[in-house]
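Example for tutorial group B:
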């Protein structure tokens, strides 16, 4: 009887785990978080189908054109990681590797932003409004203005 009981308990635990995983996955997918990327790219996710395809194609083209810059940035991050693992830290080399990685990131982002500007320039006012809504949504709520501190008498 104890073997059967153990199997029932194991089955219940497994089923609870699977149910939780399925529910968590469904919530994750419905929240719209997977694969959104950073805010400028994600802002185009609600464009009409044809414009969204063109938008994504334009951004993929920038990434393809920027492949070497992306690879250089990745290499710089690997070098930084290797430097951090050394018994004696070479701060000058670490700072240089991180700067190369940062510069590569900035270069790619600048190219992406320029392509988004070109896309917006060629698009309709309605498409620009969709992009604006996407940016505003991902920027988060607007902070409340800070109240002036009360003056003591």
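The residue assignment follows.
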């Amino acid at each position: 009887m104890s073997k059967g009981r153990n199997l029932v308990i194991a089955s219940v635990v497994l089923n609870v785990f699977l149910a939780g995983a399925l529910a968590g996955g469904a919530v994750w997918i419905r929240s719209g978080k997977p694969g959104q990327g950073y805010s400028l790219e994600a802002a185009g996710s609600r464009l009409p189908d044809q414009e969204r395809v063109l938008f994504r194609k334009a951004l993929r083209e920038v990434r393809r054109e920027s492949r070497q810059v992306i690879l250089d940035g990745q290499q710089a991050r690997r070098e930084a990681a290797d430097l951090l693992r050394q018994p004696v830290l070479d701060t000058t080399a670490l700072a240089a590797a991180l700067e190369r990685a940062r510069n590569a990131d900035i270069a790619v982002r600048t190219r992406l932003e320029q392509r988004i500007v070109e896309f917006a320039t060629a698009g309709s006012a309605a498409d620009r409004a969709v992009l604006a809504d996407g940016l505003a949504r991902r920027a988060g709520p607007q902070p409340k203005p800070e109240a002036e501190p009360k003056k003591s008498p």
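Residues 91-122 form the longest helix (32 residues). Compare this with the pattern of hydrophobic and polar residues in the output above.
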